[in-house]
Structure formats: structure tokens, C-alpha cells
Amino acid sequence: GRGSFGDRGGGRGGFGDRGGRGGFRGRGKPVVALFVLFNTYRPFLKLAIQRFLESCVILLIFPMKGVFICRGKEDALVTKNMVVGESVYGEKRMNVEEGETKIEYRAWNPFRSKLAAAILGGVDQIHIKPGAKVMYLGAASGTTVSHVSDIVGPEGLVYAVEFSHRSGRDLLNVAKKRTNIIPIIEDARHPHKYRMLVGMVDVIFADVAQPDQTRIVALNAHNFLKNGGHFVISIKANCIDSTAAPEAVFAAEVKKMGSENMKPQEQLTLEPYERDHAIVVGIYRPAPKSKK
């Protein structure tokens, strides 16, 4: 009889078993046949490999609530997607099985988000967590705002303030699908214009890149930040003083914060993700220490 993959006779050829010229002992045809077989089943093999790789994704809980590290082919900082099936800025989404349910996570790019850069840079705490009420100054088109929305979840709120009407249009589109975002298209220098829209908040995050940014944050803190609440400020040295060394600019801004009842607790630069940027984290009107 014919040997499989052989060219003539040969009993039980198979993959090189004994018996005639079966198996890989033919004269070239077995290689062609194997190539055809591989191409025929390649889509199925690709799907099987993809599913295997997906099943190998390991989700690590980060010290910060609501933020995770996804371990797979490449490690990624991720947040749990509040709007399943939707990307905001073309970011990757990944499904992770937890028991019988699949949960979708969104990759958080540190090159497009100062907050993500600070987290991966090793900041101890951002104070943004599930259920928190956050004021975001300098919301732009909503890239980072969407991840803050993921973190605070349906029980939290994000008051997203953006002055540019062009960026504001994109922000409004993001907010349409994320009910915990309240978009405010106003100048953050004038918090009285939106005081009727905003309640007291737990955290203020600011990425306004203006020479008077510490004053802008302070004005909003005096109006909306709880005593003992926290602030996270991204400082771009060039926007404040392009002639001074970045370290001198950061030190001057930290000094200004102290005069506004804003007590800095932590500072770090954002290299390698951003040049001449720093993040300052602190507490607003901390409770006086009790004397023993």
C-alpha cells in the first residue's frame, strides 16, 4: 500500500516509520505536502497561539487601587475599562479571565500621560482611587481623564476642566460614554465661573503648563478641595522660566505652594518619559498635629 507523505509504496510510511519509502524518506514531495498542510491550517494555528498567549497574561495588582500591571509579551500599566469594547485614543485593550467572567483592561501609555509616567517613575501615592471625587485641571482631549474615570469607577466623579474649545469637543465626546466625567469648558483661573457645577473634591490633579500654574491650582483648592485633601501637580519647567535650570524652577514652585496652605510631600522628575518635568504630590490644609 501507499505510505503517507511518501511517493511510492512502502507499507506504513507515516513520519519515517519502517516500511518502504514512506514518511520523510521520499524525494521532495513530503516537504511540499507539509508546506501545503501548514498553510491550510495556519489560521487555526494562529488563533490557537493567540488564545494561548492571552491565557498567559498575568495581572498584577499595583500598590495603588484601581491601577494594574499586565504581564504578557510586554508589560503594560493598565486600568479596568469602564466602557467595555471602547478605546479612547487607540490604546490597546486586553481581556483577562477572572473566574467565569472576562474583564477588559486598557493600556495606559506613560509617553502620553504625565500621571502614568509618575506612577511608573515610582511615585508613592497619587491619592486617586475607587469612589474618589477628582478635579482635573488641564483635561485636554480626555486621554488621561479617561483613565482617571476608570480608576474612580461609577461611584466616583471627575470634574474635567479645559479652556481650549477645540480640545473640549473631544473631551465632551469622551464624557458622553463615561457618566462619571463632568466636562467643564472654562478657564481654570476663574473657578467662580463653574462653582455651581462642582462639589468638594478629594484630589486635584493639574497639568496646565502655565507660568502661574501654582496660583491656578491654589485658587481651585481654596474653592473645592477638602481640608486634608491632596493635590498632584505636573510642572513643566520651560513653561514657567525657560532661562532657569529645571531644578531651580521646581524648587521655586514648591516654595509658592507652601504659602498657599499646600504642603508638598513628594517630588520626582518624569524621565525618561518627559524631559524637564516634575510631579509634586502634597496635602492641602493638613490637620494640626495633636500635642502629646
TrEMBL record:
It comes from the Eukaryota. Its main location: nucleus. It catalyses: L-glutaminyl-[histone H2A] + S-adenosyl-L-methionine = N(5)-methyl-L-glutaminyl-[histone H2A] + S-adenosyl-L-homocysteine + H(+). Keywords: Methyltransferase, Nucleus, Ribonucleoprotein, RNA-binding, rRNA processing, S-adenosyl-L-methionine, Transferase. GO terms for cellular component: box C/D methylation guide snoRNP complex; Cajal body; small-subunit processome. Residues 1-22 are annotated as: Disordered. GO terms for molecular function: histone H2AQ104 methyltransferase activity; RNA binding; rRNA methyltransferase activity. Pfam families: Fibrillarin. PROSITE patterns: FIBRILLARIN. InterPro entries: Fibrillarin (IPR000692), Fibrillarin_CS (IPR020813), SAM-dependent_MTases_sf (IPR029063). GO terms for biological process: box C/D sno(s)RNA 3'-end processing. It is found in: Nucleus, Nucleolus. HAMAP family: RNA_methyltransf_FlpA (MF_00351). NCBIfam families: PRK04266.1-2. Belongs to the methyltransferase superfamily. Fibrillarin family. This is rRNA 2'-O-methyltransferase fibrillarin. It comes from Esox lucius. The gene is FBL.
